[in-house]
Design goal:
Length: 949
């Protein structure tokens, strides 16, 4: 028993369990199971060339020493990223709390009411500050949110505009540089023509369908956009505004001057810089566009008893339903960070936010006034927190860096300074001293912050915000701590029980992997600091890229995509660029098997490709004959094949190398979706199966927590020929020699979260990674055999084995009047989150146990399903008043005076003995989705609702 071995702590199955499990699975040893599961021609012949595993203690010492290589300067670069203060009560009770960070996307509303309420707070905060009617529950970052606005407005063009081929989208030259780069990436495949220029010189004409403005501008100038917006409306041009959320406390809300969409980041609401992420973007628009808004919306509805309840509205998993017709491929929000940002607003309330915003503005005014006395004049006529100076930057920069201060150096004679929540009087003095020293001026003493305003009356906010009770009730730490706990108790997360979601790999997010995220040495680094100031990050990120290269067998990696869906888009865009570099721009056909991951078709359309779907056979495998026909039919225009491997049906298809060779023989490239990489690591890899690019879900296989539905990281790993096209960044050079424009805002995406996967690989090492994969496959086959005879497994491999997940066919239970949803809701009474429901096959559940679950937990889960199977047998189609149809059962039901159900309370709430020891109570009964969509309410109730008449 190696207590210092991380694999021993991460992997739930112990040596003593093997004999029993192998007997149930009917194999002599693990090697036999793997032999019967994975085709022989794709097995790795050699171990992965990775460093030996570190113990947890060794890793924590290593990561601490690495963090000391990062230089923590006072940074005033701005450009969408600002220093801020994470309230300790939020850091300790949300960021560091597995009750929040290990929860899954709230698709099962009855056991996610806490997160849903926190996200409703977030949406309300965004609507109030932006002056818009509707907001979603976060997107990935400001730049990709702006791209979503561009494409949404493109889809919303009038019938006349579409008929006339109106394709132009005007982008103000004040836009953030990283946002412009992402817009270029996303506009090109769709044929949108970007026109970048000065909005004050813009000629309004019918060739434009929309515009994007920055508020304030990238270097701090605050413009009054009211007359511009009026002219745009007169010309049927819709307006998107990228707005700094803290500035909106003092500035006129974009909704009040006519914006159609408002986007931005909530990073400065208490979220660490983290060298670029993860941070929660926001997206707000008009209710008239509710069917077009990307991402998730949290809405108010009621449960079967008429009690108010929350659930995801409208867009829930629509990319799996609409596929290539989906509004967006963005399946990962930034829930954990949105929860934190929303809670920041709850903690500070409207008065607290005003205090913070006014202090930031006062610091900027004080600095501008003081430097003016030194003869240094700034050029912004109106500003919130960012001031711009004409000055010899070659004199300023060395002195500033000597004093460990970063400014934004625009060119040799211009710099900007963005002040923030952490800026105190002493920091203003430090900046003044730097200028005095650099320009050999007599130093001035700053005695106090000035209270004058640099915001003209015409753009000052006059409307109220955050009047709801929730933003005016929890301002002491005690009260907020209790409010957070109240919400946490309503959610079922991994710290309560196994979450067996197929395709989503809800494994342990180990504490030692998570601890570095709380370190200021990792959290306080701006993504655009000089590389030498981020040496610790650079070492870690480069090594992580190399680790992923080894694991996938590929030649290069980009960590920039900050979700799996963005990884899909990035992979396809590199393929697109590769074909273009060879003079084969015409290659635009993307073949996607019907069994592929649900976001694949939407990603292909976003990359400008046409989707051709191929059949699957009776065993769930790709129909090779049909594939071959379609490949030959489209050979001259074939761009790519998108596959998931093992397939979404949980099977290692033996014809995979034949399939990939077929694509290559006809000039295409193979994209592999990495959703099921947990069944490959150490045993096979994408390069061996013949893929050219894959994305990896670091929030699945590589232990980044789902965080309630985000953060995610979706890097792409590519073969040698695609390395030159890896995505770049306009501020900090990244990518290959022929890099495509940016996929997301930050050079290395969500760098802070990458620490988790780096630690996971470091502590498991080659042998631990391989063992984890083998145990994941063992656990899946154990559950499969334990449930044999009670549930039919829809697909298996040629030797009857599942990969790391399996699909249980629940369609036969319709004869008893039981739907798959009834099973999902009943599992809540047994203390479990449902497996993946009706994906990839309607009427089924897909189970993935992961390697970090113990045999005891697997047994509890199997006992629950077997007990439910008996309940199904007892149900009849003509009597729907049964324990499954009425599930889940709440504490209010069990303790109420009335009980007129045909089964007792014990059976409802405690059907098995183990449940009584650790009962989880759903806080609402089954929610009414249709009612919520018919009566869409996506913000908190007004304060009047809390006041008794």
């Amino acid at each position: 028993m190696r207590t210092d071995e991380f694999a021993f702590r991460h992997i739930g199955i112990q040596e003593k369990d093997y004999e029993h499990m192998l007997k149930v699975v009917d194999v002599e040893n693990l090697d036999q199971l793997i032999f019967e599961t994975i085709p022989d021609d794709i097995k790795l012949s050699e171990p992965l060339k990775l460093d030996a595993a570190m113990s947890e203690h060794e890793f924590l010492e290593h990561i601490h020493q690495l963090s000391l290589k990062n230089k923590i300067f006072k940074t005033y670069i701005g450009l969408g990223y600002h220093g801020c203060i994470t309230p300790s009560v939020i850091q300790r009770n949300i960021l560091e709390n597995p009750g929040w960070y290990t929860a899954y996307t709230p698709y099962q509303a009855e056991i996610a009411q806490g997160r849903l309420e926190a996200l409703l707070n977030f949406q309300t905060m965004v609507c109030d500050l932006t002056g818009m009617e509707l907001a979603n529950a976060s997107l990935l970052d400001e730049s990709t949110a702006a791209a979503e606005a561009m494409t949404m407005l493109f889809d919303l063009r009038s019938r006349t505009q579409k008929k006339n081929g109106v394709l132009k989208f005007f982008v103000s030259e004040e836009i953030l540089p990283q946002t412009l780069s992402v817009l270029k990436t996303r506009s090109a495949p769709l044929g949108i023509e970007l026109v970048v220029g000065n909005h004050e010189a813009f000629t309004f004409d019918e060739d434009f369908y929309g515009v994007l403005l920055q508020y304030p501008g990238k270097h701090g100038q605050v413009y009054d956009y009211a007359s511009f917006a009026q002219k745009a409306k007169e010309n049927d041009i819709k307006i998107a505004v990228a707005a700094d959320i803290l500035s909106l406390v003092l500035l006129t809300a974009p909704g009040d001057f006519g914006a159609d969409v408002v986007v931005g980041t909530t990073q400065r609401f208490g979220i660490p810089l983290g060298y670029g992420g993860p941070h929660a973007a926001y997206f707000a628009t008009k209710e008239a566009y509710k069917r077009n808004i990307p991402g998730r919306i949290i809405g108010v509805t009621k449960d079967v008893d008429g009690k108010q309840a929350l659930r995801m509205a409208l867009q829930t998993r629509e990319q799996h339903i609409k596929r290539d017709k989906a509004t967006s491929n963005i399946c990962t929000a930034q829930v954990l960070l949105a929860v934190m940002a929303g809670m920041y607003a709850v903690y500070h309330g409207p008065q607290g936010l005003k205090y913070i915003a006014k202090n930031v503005h006062a610091a900027a005014v004080t600095l501008a006034d003081t430097l003016e006395k030194l003869g240094i004049y700034q050029t912004n006529t109106s500003y919130f927190d960012t001031i711009t100076f004409k000055v010899d930057t070659t004199r300023i920069r060395p002195i500033a860096e000597k004093h460990q201060v970063n400014f934004n150096y625009i060119d040799s004679e211009t710099l900007s300074i963005s002040l923030n929540e952490t800026t105190a009087l002493k920091d203003v003095q430090r900046i003044v001293d730097i200028f005095s020293e650099a320009l050999e001026k007599t130093p001035l003493t700053v005695n106090e912050l000035h209270t004058s305003s640099a915001i003209p009356n015409s753009v000052q906010r006059t409307t109220s915000f955050l009047e709801n009770s929730v933003f005016n009730s929890f301002h002491s730490e005690t009260e907020l701590m209790r409010y957070i706990k109240k919400l946490e108790r309503k959610d079922l997360a991994l710290n309560h029980s196994m979450i067996s979601l197929g395709s989503c790999t809800m494994k342990l997010n180990a504490a030692s992997e998570m601890l570095p995220l709380s370190s200021a040495q990792w959290g306080n680094i701006h993504p655009f600091v000089p590389l030498e100031q981020a040496e610790g990050y650079q070492i870690m990120l480069k090594e992580l890229e190399q680790q992923l290269n080894v694991i996938t067998g590929f030649a290069g990696t980009s960590l920039q995509p900050n979700s799996g869906a963005q990884g899909e888009l990035a992979g396809l865009m590199t393929i697109r660029a590769y074909h273009e570099s060879r003079g084969e721009e015409h290659r635009n056909i993307c073949i996607i098997p019907a069994s592929a991951h649900g976001t694949n078709p939407a990603s292909a359309v976003m990359a400008g490709m046409k989707v051709v779907v191929t059949k699957t056979d009776d065993r769930g495998n790709i129909d090779v004959t049909d594939l071959e026909e379609k490949v030959k039919l489209h050979a001259s225009n074939l761009a790519a094949l998108m596959i998931t491997y093992p397939s979404t049906h949980g099977v290692f298809e033996s014809s995979i190398k034949q399939i990939t060779q077929l694509i290559h023989d006809h000039g295409g490239q193979v994209y592999m979706d990495g959703a099921n990489m947990n069944a490959q690591v150490g045993l096979t890899n994408p390069a061996t199966i013949g893929a050219d690019v894959c994305h990896l879900n670091l929030h699945k296989t590589f232990a980044i927590p789902h965080g309630g539905g985000g953060p995610g990281v979706g890097p792409i790993c590519v073969a040698k020929q695609l390395v030159p096209f890896l995505p770049g960044n306009p501020v900090i050079p990244t990518g290959g020699g022929k890099s495509i424009t940016a996929i997301s805002a930050a050079p290395w995406g969500s760098s802070l979260a990458c620490l988790i996967s780096y630690g996971y690989i470091k502590m498991l090492g080659e042998s631990g990674l391989k063992k984890a994969t083998m145990i994941a496959i063992l656990n899946a086959n154990y559950i499969k055999n334990r449930l044999s005879g009670s549930f039919d497994v829809l697909y298996t491999g040629e030797k009857g084995r599942a990969a790391h997940e399996m699909i249980l066919d629940c369609r036969p239970f319709k004869q008893n009047g039981i739907e798959v949803t009834d099973i999902a809701k009943r599992l809540m009474d047994y203390g479990f989150h449902a497996p993946t429901v009706s994906f990839p096959v309607a009427g089924t559940v897909m189970i993935e146990p992961t390697e970090s679950e113990s045999l005891a937990e697997l047994e509890r889960f199997c006992e629950a399903l077997l007990s439910i199977r008996k309940e199904i047998d007892a149900a009849t189609i003509d009597n729907p008043n049964n324990v499954l149809k009425n599930a889940p059962h709440t504490l209010a039901m069990l303790t109420g005076n009335d009980w007129d159900l045909p089964y007792d309370r014990q059976k409802a709430a405690f059907p098995l003995d183990y449940i009584a020891e650790n009962k989880f109570w759903p806080s609402v009964r089954r929610v009414d989705d249709a009612y919520g969509d018919r009566n869409l309410i996506c913000t908190c109730a007004p304060i009047e609702a809390y006041v008794e008449a």
